[in-house]
Amino acid sequence: MASTRQELIAPNGRKISLNTGLFIGNEWVRAAEGGLIESINPANETVITSVQAATEADVYIAVRTAKAALKHPSWADLHPSSRGSLLRRLSDLVEEHSVDLATLEAWDSGKPYSVALNEDVAEVITCLRYFAGWADKAHGQVIDGGASKFAYTIREPFGCGNTVILKPSELTPLAILYLADLIKVAGFPPGVVNILNGHGREAGAAIAKHPDIAKIAFTGSTSTGREIMKMAASNLKAITLETGGKSPLLVFKDADMEQAVKWAHTGIMSNQGQICSGTSRILVEKDVYESFIEAFKSFTQATSKVGDPFAETTFQGPQISKSQYDRIRAYIDSGIKQGARLVLGESSSRDHGGKGFFIEPTIFCDVSPDMDIYREEIFGPVVVISPFETEEDAIEKANDSPYGLAASVFSQNITRCHRLAKKIESGTVWINSSNDSDSLTPFGGMKQSGIGRELGQAGMEAYSVIKSVHVNLEAKL
């Protein structure tokens, strides 16, 4: 069988050897039906390469491989501390290869290279090391049942010893394929980690419906999350869903306005606005409404430099795809037609000979709650700013959404901040910051923003089940 490895030269001149096959059982294989997915550079719309596209047949092979690995002594009998050592070894390899990983991510997704390197890859390293420390600390509980009996609980798989199948987004398949080679080098036994690129309607659906998969963890749109719930219901799979959001950011007149402006900008304009928890609804106390708008506009104009992801001065690269570009443009047009005041933006920015999915940062104000741009997730560098009168008004407007992923509150009255944190309906509340997260703290949504939590101890525990063991010492019938 011909090799699926390709030699690539990135826009920054980096030469990268990348395997584009399916990673099953620590081996690279071609898709059963021979399908391919083109990886498109969103900065100039050229094809980077093509990767193998899994279908249902490949999913079934991967599941059989993962099931066998789950029971194989090389993994099943491995001490939890040794599993932690594997994760630490993988984190070291990610750090060693961070430039290649960041290059692929910037090339494939359009995000600035500096962000991919200093934030995304750095967070991967931190996350791996954090959970490596949990591998031998997933303790159970001993329960006193009286003199004649006791019970205890254990978490299975012990030491987070699952086997997994990863299906990346078909829009960004490259960096995860590079990671697969590092997983093998780190020493993970065959079948513990399997990676299948593929379309959601084929590979994703097959994973969601497969009877031998015990849990699904999904990050993506609310509509896709609903479909996954329906398919997972066929065998009562455990699910974790991190879906859409329309997160509010509240600014009171006593806030540190300079910091509120900077955090508000980071909260929506980072990652080209493609942030599930992006604070895309800014609610400002009426007394400082107009002054905040002017300060936010000025800071955005000075900071959000749109352009080549590999240029050092770039803050914002292109959107992820043509379909997402078109979707964002449609929302901008909708906002204008429905009467919102356009403060900044409107025109698209197509560099590189008219190519690339670039959109200027866009700010709307005087937006009513019935407008599409106010209520619906846009997933782009588009923000709406609206005034509020009182604290109660701010809470009501913040909660007036089908989503509940995150929220931010800016005020120097810390008592007020804590009061609002309790009343706002969201899985995360940031006080005087925005999109400020880490591996130690659980993350997830309420309402239509998802089910369950990732990260932190709660995230780790979601990948195990509690078994209760009752021990009869002397009771007789």
TrEMBL record:
Keyword list, A-Z: NAD, Oxidoreductase
Molecular functions (GO terms): aldehyde dehydrogenase (NAD+) activity
GO BP terms, alphabetized: polyamine catabolic process
Parts of the chain that traverse the membrane: none
Domain of life: Eukaryota
Catalytic residues of the enzyme: E242
UniProt keyword annotation of DNA-binding present: no
Aldehyde dehydrogenase domain boundaries: 28-469
Record-linked InterPro entries: Ald_DH/histidinol_DH, Ald_DH_C, Ald_DH_CS_GLU, Ald_DH_N, Aldehyde_DH_dom
Gene3D superfamilies per the UniProt record, alphabetical: Aldehyde Dehydrogenase, Chain A, domain 1, Aldehyde Dehydrogenase, Chain A, domain 2
Similarity comment: Belongs to the aldehyde dehydrogenase family.
Protein name stated in the entry: Aldehyde dehydrogenase
Lineage of source species: Eukaryota, Fungi, Dikarya, Ascomycota, Pezizomycotina
